[in-house]
Amino acid sequence: MRILSGVQSSGKLHLGNYFGAIKQFIELQDEGEALYFIANLHAMTTVREGEKMRGLTLDAALDFLALGLDPAKATLFRQSDIPEVTELFWYLSAVAPMGMLERAHSYKDKVAKGISPDIGLFTYPVLMAADILLYGSDVVPVGKDQVQHVEMTRDLATKFNLAYVPGYDPKRDENPKTRKIEGILRLPSARVQDQTASVPGVDGLKMSKSYDNTIDLFADDAATKKKVMSIKSDSTPMESPKDPNANSIHALLSLFANEADMAEINRSYREGGKGYGHYKLQLLELFHAHFDPARARRKQLESDLQFVENVLKDGAERARKTAAPIIDQCRRAVGMR
Ligand code: ADP
Ligand code: TRP
User: Fold this and answer.
1) Angle (CA) 200 203 207, round 5°
2) Is 142's C-beta closer than 6 angstroms to any atom of ligand 1?
3) Cα 19 from Cα 21, distance rounded (Å)
4) Which residue minimizes the CA distance to atom 6 of ligand 2?
């Protein structure tokens, strides 16, 4: 099984990114051949300064490695180090219907928010499809918001196969038993992590860097404490029972606490007697117990950037090897070779 996913290098990682996406990526490196990349080309749709882009790309690599991505098991690389991806992007663009891209939720949401769209934002899903199809990926772990993009990827692969593989039958491709003629591009499936599909931020809304409500993974201790203590609560008196759904403290605790701790937390919520400040401090403690090893590892990596650079270079070489036979078939099929 080939597993592939990408993360845009567009800002600092927070608890939502970790529990919604990265934790799953790292677990999957033991289940198959995993390829993970830093989607710096995609990030160009929002980051418009070269120096900042370079920094954010390196940050993303440090984050991944600190959080447990093991370069011996998974291939980690920069999207931009693979020229074949922009080549396949073009081949796919030639079969991509405008109407399909116009229906993309993320594009429509951004336009609705008043962003004046450029071609890069519009064709974002086609580049994402190229990312996925170039390596013959089977499984694409993503957040809920990206599922439609993976569906579009399947559509684009089907369109390409129909156009360029004589006798290709998309219905039969679904079932390996009845498949007579293989497509050049393999149809991937999205995998969404359900339990933690949406991590709430300090204000109770979905945690997101665009809402300024995040608890970041690698902020310094003082900033982390300030953020945790700022979680919006209500004025339920200390002695009264607390409603676990009244604010995000309980949901955040449940990301970290084991079953026994959680049973104790639930009991104390029902019983009352403890103020929200108590639970926030407990959350802070759990956060540190969980992330301090990764935080220390990140510091160490920061002093060995050559190692990180080597991981990315080696990753790109491996990824290009995986891509080579697929892009070669594409080139021949479309008549470029
Ligand atoms: P942000 O909303 O902060 O800009 P991104 O859109 O860059 O985050 O998301 C990167 C990954 O993290 C995606 O797979 C996304 O689904 C996941 N993710 C982001 N925020 C959350 C959240 N609050 N809960 C669960 N997953 C999240
Ligand atoms: N669009 C994804 C996001 O914002 C990042 C991404 C780019 C990606 N290419 C990909 C994810 C390919 C999975 C597969 O989260």
Assistant:
1) 35
2) yes
3) 6
4) 6
Tokens 């199809």 sit on residue: 133
C-alpha 295 – ligand 1 centre gap (Å) = 20
For residue 323, what are its two tokens? 């891509």
- 52-90 pLDDT tens trace: 999 999 999 999 999 999 999 999 999 999 999 999 999
Q: Which listed ligand is nearest to 189 at the C-alpha?
A: 2
For 158, the token pair is 């089907």
Atom number, ligand 1, closest to the C-alpha of residue 207:
23
Over residues 280-300, the mean pLDDT reads: 97
User: Could you read off the pLDDT of 79-136 as tens digits, one per residue?
Assistant: 999 999 999 999 999 999 999 999 999 899 999 999 899 999 999 999 999 999 999 9
Residue-wise pLDDT tens digits, 157-215: 999 999 999 999 988 777 767 767 889 999 999 998 776 668 999 999 999 988 899 99
Ligand 2 pocket residue status of 137, Cβ below 6 Å: no
Closest C-alpha residue for ligand 2 atom 13? 5
Contacting residues for 160 by C-beta, under 8 A, at least 6 apart:
91, 92, 95, 133, 183, 184, 185, 330
| Rounded distance from Cα 149 to ligand 1 centre (Å) | 15
Burial 151-182 (b: 16+ CB within 10 A, else e): ebbbbbbbbbbeebbeebeeebbeeeeeeeee
| pLDDT given for residue 144 in this prediction | 82
Enter the tokens of residue 180: 């007579």
Percent of the chain with pLDDT strictly greater than 70: 98
Q: Which ligand does the CA of 16 lie closest to?
A: 1
Distance from the alpha carbon of residue 106 to the mean position of ligand 2, in angstroms: 12
DSSP 257-282: --HHHHHHHHHHHHH----HHHHHHH
SS3 for 104? coil
131 lines ligand 2 (CB under 6 A): yes
Q: In this structure, what token pair is assigned to residue 184?
A: 């050049």
Closest ligand to residue 23's CA: 1
